[in-house]
Amino acid sequence: MLKRFSVLIFVLVLSALAVPAFAQGDPNDTEGSKDPALFNRMPGYHIYRYEESEFDRYEVPITSDYQTQAVEGHILWIIYEPNDGIKLPSGLQITRNYTNAALAVGGQKIVEFEDGGIQHVTLKITKDNAETWVHVEARGEQYALHIVEKQLMKQDVVADAKSLAGSIQQTGKVSVYGIYFDTGKSEIKTESEPALAEIAKMLKADAGLKLYVVGHTDNVGTFDSNIKLSNARADAVVKALVGKYGLAASRLLPFGAGSTSPVQSNATEEGRAKNRRVELVAQ
To answer: Which of 10, 68, 215, 256 could form a disulfide with 146 if both were Cys (CB 3.0 to 4.6 A apart)?
Structure first.
């Protein structure tokens, strides 16, 4: 649970736009620090503290009485302090600047409140099927951003060839979650290699096994576009297995099911992530 702090600590933010009220970097910035990709900073401020985590959990305040929602993903925590001699803005001026920048790109304000002289605002920006939560704490002497780009943890452990084969023998199919694509794209990302290698190993161990390689999507977008995308992704997997691992194309038949066969509800991002998968089905 997020606690009430007497000093500023954090902010969630997806950098959205560079707004005239914001400035660029400062020579007084902590070494190795930088502004978020889309948000710049208030003019006359430098980065006092900068921390980044590839994957962690943050409790985002969603009400003025500090009820929170857990968000997991890439986390960026930045504390800004003013340079000597500048005219300090109010905490409200700082939070309103970030709020206006987020709203300008279609974001929404979740909650705004004041506590102990510190202004708070929580923002959420949804773009390209990704969510960025932003919690800003501000007073003139200091303000902080804690930025959480919501995402699923990268799947470093993938099922081995034996497990894949066992599932196909028992149920006639297996879902593979270690094959990655960018949003709306069908090019296989390099981090998919471990999963592809295990699929190839399974097929080479059983020369008689033939598979439908089925692409599945969530329900974001039109039905026709999801069918087209899932077909393209299934075809890309087949081409990778044939071209890189030397498997016979006659053993693999690509098919795109789009969003027609979900394994979880598409009402949540977690459910949609489970529905975006490649499935191997015995012919």
So the answer is: 10
Pair (189, 138) in one structural domain:
no
β-pairing, 68-82 vs 211-216, is: unpaired
Backbone angles phi, psi at 65, to 5 degrees: -100, 25
User: When comparing pLDDT for 235 and 190, which is higher?
Assistant: 235
Same domain, 86 and 170: no
Q: Does the residue 69 lie in any domain?
A: yes
Q: Does residue 14 lie in a domain region?
A: no
Residue 55's pLDDT band, with cuts at 50, 70 and 90, is confident
Q: How many folded domains does the chain comprise?
A: 2
- Whether the full predicted model's pTM is greater than 0.85, yes or no, is no
